[in-house]
Amino acid sequence: MYAIIGTWKMSLEGVWKGREMLKNCAGAGDTVTQAVMQAEDQPEFHSVGYGGLPDREGRVTLDAGFMDGDSLRVGGVISVEHIKNPILAARLLCGRETNCLLSGRGAEEFALRKGLPLCDMRTQDSMERWRQEVNGLGANFSPYEGHDTVCVLALDHGGHMAAGVSTSGLFMKEIGRVGDSPLAGCGFFCDSRYGAAAATGLGEDIMRGCLSYEAVSLMRRGASPQDACREALKGLVDRKLSLKESKGSISLIALSPRGEFGASTTLPLFPFSFGSGDHPARLYRTGWDQPVQAAREEDLKGLD
Ligand code: GLY
Asked: What separation in Å is there between the alpha carbon of 218 and the centre of ligand 1?
């Protein structure tokens, strides 16, 4: 069995290609990396990679994380400004015993030493968005616009699993702000014995529930990926509601070592893509208190 799942509509092409790679016996790690890069490279996806959402100073600073489910090794980069594909740097850092999570200049110097492509990640569009916001002419973008991180989980023919995530984080974020995405257990977690999970949404909330670890932990105790996503999310939402807070903007995906998948969200509509040995890659959707169902592109207009 092989399977791959990714958050948002923006993951569809990467998941489609990733499924082809897995079918041709590629490893889970290579597949996840390629699928995340696919989204990072597209400037029209405003919250990931090239052309991502700028911070308060108008810089596009990116976070990425990667986890190998066999070794439980993790790698990640935080606030990188010139690494064309942050997920590639995270993947390379994942092989290290120490210094596997690097931020800012250290991460950029690592990428340079490894010969990774560097470029200016700002686009005219991302700069225009920032200029409008600082001049008070913005379209009232909230820091969290309803979608952010591309997360990809894969299972290969050999039973190996991997997880990768990449994001620019919040629009107009404070300099130095770190979200959930580069943090193992929060933005992603992967153990080939039990499954993988990843989160998208407001990092400050996701961190409070260590949501990705919580979902994998539920799978370790026998939950299906769907039940694990639902229970992990419900636990945090119930707690937030008991604290008189809103339920927030959080979505979770999960994949089991048998190729079953799950997804859960607090949003009215959360699209994601999935493909496996049994199922061609396609879009699915779920919503708060709604079941997972197949989706068509035209149902998801205006969403990345
Ligand atoms: N989930 C991405 C972030 O909050 O930065």
From this structure: 23
